C-alpha cells in the first residue's frame, strides 16, 4: 500500500505534528515502508507459537515471603530528630 502526500499530510494533522511541505514526500515514503513491513509480518505463519513476554528466556528470582521488621530499626531511627522506645516521636496533633 502506497501513501501519497495528501494522506501523509492528513496523518500528520491527525497526529498533531507539524510537517513542512518539503518533508511530506519523505514522510509518505517512510509511512509506506512501515505499511509494507506490516504486510510482510501479516504473511508469517504463527500458528502454534506461544506469545512471549521477553525475547530472552529468563526466570524471575524468587525469595521466601517472610514477614520481618527489616532488622535495621536502629539505623532508621538514627535519622529521626526525636525517637523514644524504638519509635519516631512526633508532635501531638489531636486535642
From TrEMBL:
Q: What is its EC number?
A: 6.3.5.-
UniProt superkingdom: Bacteria
Stored InterPro entries? Asp/Glu-ADT_sf_sub_c (IPR036113), GatC (IPR003837)
Cite the GO molecular-function annotations of the record: asparaginyl-tRNA synthase (glutamine-hydrolyzing) activity; ATP binding; glutaminyl-tRNA synthase (glutamine-hydrolyzing) activity; transferase activity
Report the SUPFAM superfamilies cross-referenced here: Glu-tRNAGln amidotransferase C subunit
**Keywords on this record?**
ATP-binding, Ligase, Nucleotide-binding, Protein biosynthesis, Transferase
The record's section on Pfam families has: GatC
Q: Which reaction does it catalyse?
A: L-aspartyl-tRNA(Asn) + L-glutamine + ATP + H2O = L-asparaginyl-tRNA(Asn) + L-glutamate + ADP + phosphate + 2 H(+); L-glutamyl-tRNA(Gln) + L-glutamine + ATP + H2O = L-glutaminyl-tRNA(Gln) + L-glutamate + ADP + phosphate + H(+)
List the GO biological process terms.
glutaminyl-tRNAGln biosynthesis via transamidation; regulation of translational fidelity; translation
Q: Which family does it belong to?
A: Belongs to the GatC family.
Q: What does this protein do?
A: Allows the formation of correctly charged Asn-tRNA(Asn) or Gln-tRNA(Gln) through the transamidation of misacylated Asp-tRNA(Asn) or Glu-tRNA(Gln) in organisms which lack either or both of asparaginyl-tRNA or glutaminyl-tRNA synthetases. The reaction takes place in the presence of glutamine and ATP through an activated phospho-Asp-tRNA(Asn) or phospho-Glu-tRNA(Gln).
The annotated subunit structure for this chain is: Heterotrimer of A, B and C subunits.
What protein am I looking at? Answer: Aspartyl/glutamyl-tRNA(Asn/Gln) amidotransferase subunit C
Amino acid at each position: 500500500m502506497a501513501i501519497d502526500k495528501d494522506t501523509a499530510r492528513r496523518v500528520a494533522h491527525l497526529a498533531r505534528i507539524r510537517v513542512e511541505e518539503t518533508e511530506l514526500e519523505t514522510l509518505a515514503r517512510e509511512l509506506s515502508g512501515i505499511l509494507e513491513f506490516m504486510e510482510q509480518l501479516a504473511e508469517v505463519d504463527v500458528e502454534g507459537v506461544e506469545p512471549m513476554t521477553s525475547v530472552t528466556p529468563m526466570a524471575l528470582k524468587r525469595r521466601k515471603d517472610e514477614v520481618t521488621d527489616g532488622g535495621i530499626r536502629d539505623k532508621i531511627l538514627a535519622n529521626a530528630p526525636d525517637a523514644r522506645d524504638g519509635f519516631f516521636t512526633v508532635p501531638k496533633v489531636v486535642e
